[in-house]
Amino acid sequence: MRSILLAVAIALAALVPLTAGASAQAAPTVQATTDATLGPILTDGAGRTLYRYTPDPPDASTCDGGCAQAWPPLLLPEGDPVLAPDLPGTLGVITRSDGSRQVTYNGMPLYYFVSDTGPGMTTGQGVGGIWFVVAPVAPADATPAATS
């Protein structure tokens, strides 16, 4: 009996470094969702649609004040954004004029639309001819990422 308990204790001790060092994958900051009309689009981890503002230059946001009230930026208070594992492209963070940290996808600042009141809504698509949902693309293909 003693040898069995010793063998179990040794086996459990051997597992401790594997489980103690393993950390759970963080929930994605950005993932892809398929819209029935638009096809694959980017959403946040809760399924809320993400948009781009075509006047924004790469890695900079020009949507402040009233613009940012209607089109709230996807903010990340700290740390690095997490891209869903099967999604092409890269996430980054820029510092906005107010000091907050906005998530970017392939250098494009990401926004929500205030009229999208729940997951799956895409009412901001095409607004003013300058706001578009974002399609998942590899960084080399970043230019056509706005779904029109």
Question: Could you please describe the fold and organization of this structure?
Answer:
With 148 residues, this protein is an alpha+beta fold. The protein has one domain. Helix content is 17%, strand content 20%. The chain has helices at 2-21, 66-70, and strands at residues 30-35, 39-44, 51-53, 91-95, 101-105, 108-109, 131-133. The strands form 3 sheets. A 3-stranded antiparallel β-sheet has the order 4-5-6, with no helix packed on it. Strand 1 and strand 2 form a beta hairpin. The chain is globular, with a radius of gyration of 21 Å.
DSSP strand tally: 7
Low-confidence segments: 1-24
> Average pLDDT, to the nearest integer?
84
Order of helical and strand elements = HEEEHEEEE
Beta-strand residue fraction = 15-25%
- Strand order in space, largest sheet: 4-5-6
* Helix segment tally: 2
Structural class: alpha+beta
The coarse silhouette is globular
Q: How does the major sheet shape up?
A: 3 strands, antiparallel
**N-to-C span:** 71 Å
Percent range for helical residues?
A: 10-25%
Number of domains: 1
Radius of gyration: 21 Å
Topology diagram in text:
Blueprint: H1 2-21, E1 30-35, E2 39-44, E3 51-53, H2 66-70, E4 91-95, E5 101-105, E6 108-109, E7 131-133
Antiparallel strand pairs: 1-2, 3-7, 4-5, 5-6
